[in-house]
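Re-run requested by the PI after the first attempt was lost when the workstation crashed. Everything re-entered from the original request form. Ligand of interest: adenine.
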Amino acid sequence: MNFYVMTLFPEMITSGLNVSIIGKAMEKGTIGIDAVNIRDFSDNKHNHVDDYPYGGGAGMVMQAEPVYRAYNHIKEKINKDKKTRVVYMTPQGKVFNQEMAKELAKEEDIIFLCGHYEGIDERVLEEIVTDNVSIGDYVLTGGEMPAMIMIDAISRLVPSVLHNDESAEFESFEDNLLEYPQYTRPVIWKNKKVPDVLLSGHHLNIEKWRREQSIKRTFERRPDLLLEAVKNFSKKDNIYLEKLKNNE
Ligand code: ADE
């Protein structure tokens, strides 16, 4: 899978993603990350890519033409017949979540567009953007960190980026539930003991305990997720949730 990032700060993208699991996946060639500097596509001798907003107001606006040229440069590298998603990072977009990450992980190529200053000329956004995406209801100084967050979350769902033992199968947001708590050695730490069931070796009991912990965590920390989660609940899950609600 290939990610192309249109940005004024390509070194942010490359240095931020060049480590750990994502860095290894890049080394292996499982994923490719190509940060394209919009400034290289400036149409004036001063290499400016921004200008004052029509109608007045604070700040500068990124011009349409350099962004459009950077986009065409990327498109030439990608199979031209294919429709490639172009994701604009903006607080005005749909809020990113695990479901969106899963959907985007099916793509072969994704282009990200990162804005700076007060935004980007609307006309080029209309021309090229297929998805407006936000990473949450707060405003950042640029789209680079949001793009990096999306690339990280999407990459780890690409087959063979994670090892089997780091599998993304049983983790938070699977079935809209949070993950159960984890423990490792030693058995006792600061007078706190690892739950007996995890030491029992009884796999069915462990599975039951983990499922209940997931439901309990979600009930306590993210009750908003339960509305969707209950759609996949078994009879036992429902009985356990009722107990939680009744404080039993
Ligand atoms: N750019 C600035 N703030 C952002 C946000 N919350 N999400 C995505 N892109 C942004």
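Saved to the shared folder this time. The domain at 172-245 is CATH 1.10.1270.20 (Trp Operon Repressor; Chain A).
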